[in-house]
């Protein structure tokens, strides 16, 4: 299985980054009340799970561990308390009648449906109460299996204020998965919420598709993962749930979602980043310096990391210049590539250049391509003064 959406990170002198996450949830640390947390992480567990299971712990620790010390974060797992007169039971589907009722009703009735409805009511009431007490608090939501349905279904009941306060929600093994592109084998249109999916023909979950999957205005902060061999979300044979049990593995879906959520939070809260360990000294670059091209990937499926990656870009660019080298930035859009201005000397001057990749553009002309065209692009790098005006010439892949 190969998904372009998984190509994230920094390798050698190439930074694969994403569109700037300019959204309505943006705020500042200074605007929050001293008694309020900056972030609330809320998670809904899967069918029959006890509170505090692996998926919850991995999600929360993965986000909190990536946030800088100046961000105050706390977490809540649905079912720990009652809110709005409801407490999410995460009913087990092992009894045959519960599973049959879920299938026959599309997850909307009988014991399973009642469990989902209780979770939706508790989640919505909890978010409303927290937002009323701390109107500047931002939310990150996560849901696994039945919990993914709870989080997804909650959007229909949520107020506009609650929706605007949600920075990211990660859904894992959702039985109500909805990927319309599955009808066409991943050719052409891709859903904004698609992350790593085990098959291009995956269309709907085992309990049918939620339509709409999430409201249009909330699609950009939603991430959906469905592993190979996961019957629950629609990729496995009848009864095959081997892939359903691996979302909390090292480097798997929950880790990917935690990274995306933390990157978005750092941007929205305008917080400082933890220093990146960037050092080019092991490279044999000689005394004349080297030319480095930073390739910024702005396709729609690459989301959540531009702001974070820009700090890495700044660090590498500074190190390059310290070694008598030059740096330039190239924007990659699948079949369309263009040259941006040379990398600036500091992050404050670099940010406006990276901000040339707005989300509105990503949603309209950022391209999807599993086999992008190769073309030469020309950037004139920022010179240190001793290397003249040579044009930087690099190939974009």
Structure description:
This protein is α/β, with parallel strands linked by helices and 397 residues long. The protein has two domains: 27-268, Rossmann fold, CATH 3.40.50.1820; 291-396, no CATH class. Helices cover 27% and strands 18% of the residues. The protein is built from nine helices and 13 strands. It has helices at 54-64, 96-105, 110-133, 146-154, 160-165, 253-268, 306-322, 347-354, 359-365, and strands at residues 9-11, 14-16, 39-44, 73-77, 138-144, 166-172, 194-197, 222-226, 291-297, 326-333, 336-342, 375-379, 392-396. The strands form four sheets. Strands 4-3-5-6-8-7 form a six-stranded parallel beta sheet, sandwiched between helices. The chain has a three-stranded mixed beta sheet with strand order 9-10-11, covered by helices on one side. A hairpin with a 2-residue loop joins strand 10 and strand 11. Helix 3 (110-133) crosses helix 4. The protein is globular, with a radius of gyration of 22 Å. The model is unreliable at 1-32, 272-278 and 336-397 (pLDDT under 50).
Write the layout of secondary structure elements.
Layout: E1 9-11, E2 14-16, E3 39-44, H1 54-64, E4 73-77, H2 96-105, H3 110-133, E5 138-144, H4 146-154, H5 160-165, E6 166-172, E7 194-197, E8 222-226, H6 253-268, E9 291-297, H7 306-322, E10 326-333, E11 336-342, H8 347-354, H9 359-365, E12 375-379, E13 392-396
Parallel strand pairs: 3-4, 3-5, 5-6, 6-8, 7-8, 9-10
Antiparallel strand pairs: 1-2, 10-11, 12-13
